[in-house]
Specification:
Number of helices: 11
Order of helices and strands: HHHHHHEEHEEHHHHEE
Number of strands: 6
Oligomer: single chain
Strand content: 5-15%
Strand order of the largest sheet: 5-4-3-6
């Protein structure tokens, strides 16, 4: 029975590694081929994409190999295990914090459209990126300096932080500042965006370009809300079991069942495979860029994806883009505005 579970775990890890590698390579290729996507969040997007790609090529296949090579054990004091734990912690924290700051950027762009360019400057974006990596490096270095420790986990088949009562201060600090804080930030911001979208849908909104104003149907806001809710649910499903198991082991001093620990570790590593697909598939401009990239190499697939992207284009309340989907009301502006505006029904 143990051999069957180990084989199943290895198969899941290998599939996760392939999905993470392919998804992040696709995202990097899209960014390389489409210059219009290189905004101030390019550094943050590259940060979480490269972190997830590195996880897909290092920690995930390493865990799959260990699950198949039992009863081989790794010494927790060995340099290989200490380095593996350092890389695992660094990449996981950097990916999550980069994704959180990219969400903050998106939130600012939607809810503070008029002052957005004064808030997010190129210099501040670089400062945020540097601060994220300095924070993650500091977290990952603490166990090497004696505050916390790295150890080989036989139930997780990889080297990771040691979740024991002796290391509870480090675990609580890392969990609170490195994991829980960015997850709560993303879920809260997504929740507020959904609230704004529902409010705008009830009031009705017109979006204007240089020539015309178009009524934005309420179902566009519903689609935007579904995207935000789905992203939050995926984030919580991937991370909550891992957080719960780690805190239980740290505070109680007891080891959780091997199946539970392995499943929670697989779920949290699965986030490295889901992040690029969520980014590419839930944002209109990324979907359009994927369509153009596919069309260069596979014309038929590109035409199919383009038609699907146009039929399901999302419109958020303050993106300042004219509606390209179903239009129920159209009127000619008496005084064409110099830039796109959003008008709301009283």
């Amino acid at each position: 029975m143990a051999d069957i579970l180990s084989t199943l775990y290895a198969a899941l890890m290998l599939l996760t590694s392939v999905a993470s590698t392919c998804g992040n390579l696709l995202l990097l290729l899209v960014l390389l081929l489409n210059k219009e996507l290189r905004s101030d969040t390019l550094g943050l997007t590259l940060s979480f994409s490269l972190s997830d790609l590195a996880l897909g090529l290092s920690a995930i296949p390493f865990s799959a190999y260990n699950s198949l090579s039992q009863p081989v054990r790794h010494s927790s004091e060995a340099d290989v295990c200490q380095g593996g734990g350092f890389i695992f912690l660094l990449l996981q924290t950097a990916s999550l914090h980069s994704l959180a700051w990219a969400t903050i950027y998106k939130f600012t762009e939607i809810c503070f459209a008029l002052s957005f360019h004064s808030i997010w400057t190129a210099g501040r974006s670089r400062a945020v990126l540097i601060a994220v990596w300095l924070f993650c490096l500091a977290n990952a270095t603490m166990p090497l300096l004696g505050f916390g420790s790295y150890a080989y986990s036989e139930s997780r088949f990889l080297c990771c932080p040691s979740f024991t009562p002796e290391n509870r201060y480090f675990v609580l600090l890392w969990m609170g500042a490195g994991i829980v804080a960015p997850i709560l930030t993303m879920c809260s911001l997504y929740g507020y965006i959904v609230y704004v979208a529902r409010k705008q849908a009830r009031r009705g909104t017109f979006m204007c370009n240089e020539l015309h104003c178009f009524y934005v149907p309420a179902n566009n806001y519903l689609r935007s809300s579904i995207v935000m809710v789905t992203t939050s649910v995926c984030l919580l499903v991937c991370w909550l079991p891992y957080i719960s198991v780690c805190l239980y082991e740290t505070l109680s001093g007891q080891q959780s069942p091997s199946v539970t620990a392995a499943l929670s570790s697989w779920l949290v590593l699965t986030s490295a495979a889901l992040n690029p697909w969520i980014t590419c598939m839930t944002q209109t401009r990324y979907r359009a860029a994927v369509c153009r990239s596919f069309r260069r190499f596979v014309p038929c697939a590109g035409m199919f994806l383009e038609s699907h992207s146009q039929s399901s284009a999302l419109h958020l309340p303050a993106t300042n883009r004219p509606s390209t989907t179903t239009t129920t009301t159209s009127m000619t502006a008496t005084q064409p505005p110099s830039s796109p505006k959003t008008l709301t029904r009283p």
